[in-house]
Automatic annotation (TrEMBL):
Gene3D superfamilies in UniProt: Dihydrodipicolinate Reductase, domain 2, NAD(P)-binding Rossmann-like Domain
Top-rank lineage group of the source organism: Bacteria
Protein name, per record: Glucose-6-phosphate 1-dehydrogenase
Chain residues that bind NADP(+): R51, K148
SUPFAM superfamilies listed in its UniProt record: Glyceraldehyde-3-phosphate dehydrogenase-like, C-terminal domain, NAD(P)-binding Rossmann-fold domains
Pfam families linked: G6PD_C (PF02781), G6PD_N (PF00479)
Catalytic activity of the protein: D-glucose 6-phosphate + NADP(+) = 6-phospho-D-glucono-1,5-lactone + NADPH + H(+)
Function in brief: Catalyzes the oxidation of glucose 6-phosphate to 6-phosphogluconolactone.
Organism: Paenirhodobacter ferrireducens
All copies of domain Glucose-6-phosphate dehydrogenase NAD-binding, residue ranges: 14-187
A GO BP annotation: pentose-phosphate shunt, oxidative branch
Enzyme Commission no: 1.1.1.49
Binding site for substrate: H178, K182, E216, D235, K334
Region (Disordered): 455-474
């Protein structure tokens, strides 16, 4: 199967913070890969903007290095790289001052799509929006892309939305969450709404529970100061995992249309019941004995009194007709046993078993959507074990790895940023968060955080390389369920 590449019209994209980590690690390589695929025309312009004093050739050299480090060898074609670099330009800009804005304005071409990627700290979003508008650089058709975090609570999210809204309409604002650009996340919607097979079963009558796991083997690394101010709840649950939950739980939209999809996601967030503190487990990873490089969380964030969590597990209930009584279990953490992200929908047992009750080999049907690594889907069903000797049941997977199912093309699934940046150029907001979604998510999250902060709760320690704190296991065991094993 060969994927279709649909070229976009010529455009100008300005990357603020172009010399920073996100730009060199994700944004510039993603743009090059789309150019290599033939989706970006040679007439496109990629303009770097940052406080760093560089000229165009210096930024092209930085871009060439970014491609060498973050693009696979199969796509590092010298001629293509040189052709891509001809699209690249640079202007030094002071986000909080007056330097560089007129020079930037001179580079923006009239009559083509123009987008402005805010790959900077959220504290600079307002400054950039104000200066882009004030210097007359943007038009009513311009688009801005803003990275998370979208505030750190409801009040700051509202303030940020108000700041952006003072200069741009909602249809111009693209709040990017790279999880929504993953091929498997988009396939979740296709599996649900393009196949009659699952949708009739996608409710509390047939689904026992849902597990969403995002596990990482790394610690907080160089993000220690940021992470200690945020914790896993703000960094992962309020945005990434909330979006995954919405896509699983949402009602079918009337059309695959940006606002129609986001309307249904918003309904899910507003239907979330307040989470009881007894349904929440928080943890911090311990150091690895004998390995000075793998320090504990409090050492990594250089705060021995830290009360921020590197791990969180919680049980969530949705108060609506489709999901009443079906729990959703979410967990995410650093320094866990394996790097994996998956959604597991566990179906209920048949109402009556015709087989030998003594046969304890029966297992539930489980649909597993793997986001990373090895993106794909896996449906576990019961069959008869081959051979004589009676009706012995065994669970087997109906497995679809994208790399295997789609052949060579599937082995090279586009990075999430590639898809999302192209959606910005096309003007498609389906996979981006709307302002009211962000605020609704914070409105649900804030009371949870306020509860443990008011009590001064400390996260529980857990061993690096484990599955998390022991109490997280009990969160499931008391309901007669078990977490899925964390493994690649």
């Amino acid at each position: 199967m060969v994927s279709r590449v649909i070229p976009v019209d010529p455009f100008d994209v300005v990357v603020f913070g172009a010399t920073g980590d996100l730009s060199t690690r994700k944004i510039l390589p993603a743009l090059y890969r789309r150019f290599f695929a033939g989706q970006i025309p040679p007439e496109a312009r990629i303009i770097g903007a940052a406080r760093t004093e560089l000229d165009a050739e210096g930024f092209r050299a930085l871009t060439r290095t970014a491609i060498a480090e973050h693009v696979g060898a199969a796509k590092r074609d010298p001629e293509q790289i040189e052709a891509f670099l001809q699209c690249v330009d640079y202007v030094p800009v002071d986000a909080t001052g007056t330097t560089g804005w007129q020079e930037l304005k001179a580079l923006i071409r009239p009559g083509v799509v123009n987008a402005f990627y805010f790959s900077v700290a959220p504290s600079l979003f307002g400054d950039l929006a104000e200066r882009l508008h004030g210097h007359g650089i943007t038009t009513d058709d311009s688009r801005i892309v803003v990275e998370k975090p979208f505030g750190r609570d409801l009040a700051s999210a509202r303030a940020l939305n108000a700041t952006l809204a003072a200069h741009f309409d909602e249809h111009q604002i693209y709040r990017i969450d790279h999880y929504l650009g993953k091929e498997t996340v988009q396939n979740l919607m296709a599996v649900r709404f393009a196949n009659i097979l699952f949708e009739p079963l996608w409710n509390s009558q047939y689904v026992d529970h849902v597990q969403i796991t995002v596990a990482e083997t790394v610690g907080v690394g160089g993000r220690g100061s940021y992470y200690d101010r945020s914790g896993a709840m703000r960094d992962m649950v309020q945005n990434h995992m909330m979006q995954l939950l919405c896509l699983i739980a949402m009602e079918p939209p009337y059309h695959f249309d940006p606002d129609a999809v986001r309307d249904e996601k918003l309904k899910v967030i507003r239907a979330l019941q307040p989470a009881a503190q007894s349904d929440i487990v928080r943890g911090q990873y311990l150091p690895v004995k004998g390995d000075p490089a793998r320090r504990g969380y409090v050492e990594d964030v250089e705060n021995p009194d830290s009360r921020s969590e590197s791990y969180i597990a919680l049980k969530v209930q949705i108060a609506n007709w489709r999901w009443q009584g079906t729990p959703f279990y979410l967990r995410t953490g650093k320094r866990l046993r394996a790097r994996t992200s998956e959604i597991a929908i566990t179906f209920k047992q048949p109402p009556h078993s015709i087989f030998d009750e003594a046969d304890d080999s029966w297992r539930e049907n489980v649909l597993v959507i793997r986001l990373q690594p090895n993106e794909g889907m896996n449906l576990k069903v019961m069959i008869k074990e081959p051979g004589p000797g009676g009706m012995r049941l065994v669970q087997v997977p109906l497995d679809m790895s994208f790399a295997e199912a789609l052949g060579e093309e599937g082995a090279d699934i586009p990075d999430a940023y590639e898809r999302l940046i192209m959606d910005v150029i096309r003007g498609n907001q389906t996979l981006f968060m709307r302002g009211d979604e962000v605020e609704a998510a914070w409105a649900w999250t804030d009371p949870i955080i306020a509860g443990w902060e008011a009590r001064g709760d400390r996260p529980q320690p857990y061993d690096s390389g484990s599955s998390g704190p022991e109490d997280a296991l009990m969160l499931m065991h008391r309901d007669g369920r078990r977490w899925r094993e964390i493994r690649e």
